[in-house]
Design goal:
The protein folds into 2 domains: 164 residues, 3-Layer(aba) Sandwich (Rossmann fold), CATH 3.40.50; 94 residues, ProC C-terminal domain-like fold (Orthogonal Bundle), CATH 1.10.3730. It contains 12 helices and 8 strands. Helix 4 runs parallel beside helix 5, helix 7 crosses helix 12 and helix 8 packs antiparallel against helix 9.
């Protein structure tokens, strides 16, 4: 049996999920997306043949229109606007419509307060590699979410990467690792490129070496059963150059620095949730 899925707000993340679903066999006719601009709606309809894309500048009630009759509604606007969007569509939802949020820092309590009593809600936390089908997505069920609905959400997000189920209390910690994590990897590549320049390499060459090395190491980590510790040890010959580099990282407290950064990211996520409350 097909399910009608409404993507309310279709930026890069929701479009990645939408595209992954179609690639996985979902009928485009079962998908509706809302955006602000008519040009963006036309772009989506052309790129994903068969979906319905509705622009707010042409249809002011586009979100309500899309949510009406939907089995699953995925809220894909910025965190500051997520609760308002939930309130906007409340009257269009059936009691068993599953509402899923991809917004960072918006709690299940905040979502449930903005929706009709008893509405099933799921909070997710995807990361940016989802755009390439290599993301990590967490799912956390709300008060009235059934096991079947949670599985339905898992099936949807499996289209863009690895799905993990966690209690909401762990979302900030997960966000600090996988949500912010891609930026940490990019930061590492930046630092490696700068180190190469300091050692005398041409800046463009150094950037290329850093980029391809980090990307290649990521592919090795993506292999089935890969373990980062085992991979590091395999590259670290006793008394060799890599061992000396790793020892220096340890002396400088790099692992502690990373832990402190992740802790700060998690604390900031909690702060934003309170501000949105």
């Amino acid at each position: 049996m097909s399910n009608r899925i409404a993507f309310l707000g279709c930026g890069s993340m929701n479009e990645a999920i939408l595209g992954g679903l179609i690639a996985g066999g979902t009928d485009p006719a079962d998908i509706v997306a809302t955006v602000r601009r008519a040009g963006r709606a036309a772009e989506l309809a052309e790129r994903h043949t068969g979906i319905t894309a509705i622009a707010g500048e042409e249809e002011p009630e586009n979100n309500v229109q899309a949510a009406t009759g939907a089995d699953v509604v995925i809220l894909g606007v910025k965190p500051v606007g997520t609760a308002a969007l939930a309130r906007e569509i409340s009257g269009a939802l059936s009691p068993d419509t599953l509402v899923v949020s991809v917004a960072a820092a918006v709690s299940l309590e905040q979502l449930e307060a903005a929706l009709p009593a008893g509405q099933p809600v799921i909070r997710t936390m995807p990361n940016t590699p989802a755009r390439l089908g290599r993301g990590v997505v967490s799912v956390s069920g709300g008060t009235h979410c059934s096991a079947e609905q949670l599985q339905q959400a898992k099936d949807i997000f499996a289209a863009v990467g690895t799905v993990v189920e966690i209690p909401e209390a762990q979302v900030d910690a997960l966000s600090a690792v996988s949500g912010s994590g891609p930026a940490y990897a990019f930061y590492l590549a930046e630092a490696m490129a700068a180190a190469g320049v300091e050692l005398g390499l041409d800046p463009e060459l150094s950037k290329l070496l850093a980029r391809e090395t980090v990307a290649g190491a990521g592919l090795m980590l993506a292999e089935p059963g890969a373990d980062p510790t085992a991979l590091r040890i395999a590259v670290t010959s006793p008394n060799g150059t890599t061992e000396r580099g790793i020892a220096t990282f340890d002396e400088q407290g790099l692992s502690g620095i990373i832990a402190a950064g992740a802790r700060a990211a998690a604390e900031r996520a909690a702060e934003i949730t309170k501000q949105l409350g």
